[in-house]
Amino acid sequence: MGSGWIWGQTVRWRLPLGGAALLLLLLPAAAGQKSPGVACSQNTNKTCQECLKNVSCLWCNTDNTCLDYPVSKILPPASLCKLSSARWGVCWVNFEALIITMSVVGGLILLAVAMCCCYCCCRNKRSRKPDKSEEKAMREQEERRIRQEERRAEMKSRHDEIRKKYGLFKEENPYARFENN
Q1: Other beta carbons less than 10 A from residue 81's beta carbon
Q2: CB proximity list for 51: less than 8 A, separation 6 or greater
Q3: Does residue 80 contact residue 97 with C-beta atoms inside 8 Å?
Q4: Angle CA(28)–CA(32)–CA(37) in degrees, nearest 5?
Q5: More confidently predicted of 7 and 95
Q6: 89: phi > 0 → left, psi -120 to 50 → alpha, else beta; which?
Q7: Which of 74-78, 155-159, 171-175 has the lowest mean pLDDT?
Q8: What is the reported pLDDT for 30?
Q9: Residue 65's closest CA among 89, 86, 79, 96?
Q10: Model confidence at 106: pLDDT above 60
Q11: Which secondary-structure segment (H or E) carries 124?
């Protein structure tokens, strides 16, 4: 069990731990969700935690405002709040860091999937090729088949000679001589 085993074990645990960390990052936002009827603007000039209890709210650190998250856009526009000071989900991670982290995690997941696919394909290619013992067995089987065919031909010629000797030899087709004329 060389270094490949250790690397495989590391990759196996890295993905679930990353997913668990992401879940713990976004869990407080989902757990403290208020009713959708409460407007986000009511939490302006309060704390970030109060604002982000409602998942549809966005906290802007520059002017301590609680805004409705612009659901029509993926990212909040800079006119609303700069990404470096915007908070969504949790107060201790800004939107810019969240985007970078999610991009890196997504890239690592894609890279890990690609590496697993390449590893599996290479392993299957190696297993398709017959190894030395299989090649030897195939050669021996072919040699046995050739020897068996030689023995069959030899036995047939002996039997034909015996049939000729005792007059039991059958002509191939007695009517063949009439077809050739």
Answers
A1: 21
A2: 40, 43, 44, 57, 58, 59, 66
A3: no
A4: 140
A5: 95
A6: left
A7: 171-175
A8: 47
A9: 86
A10: yes
A11: helix 95-128
